[in-house]
Amino acid sequence: MNNVISMDDRVIRGQSRTLTVRDRRYSIRYPLAVDAELINLQSGDKTHGVTSDLSFGGCFVCTSRTLPVHSRIKLSLTRKDQVVESLAIVRVVKQRIGMGIEFIDVAAPYSQMLSRWIESLRRSR
Question: Where are the alpha helices (DSSP H) in the chain?
Answer without folding.
Answer: 7-12, 21-24, 108-123
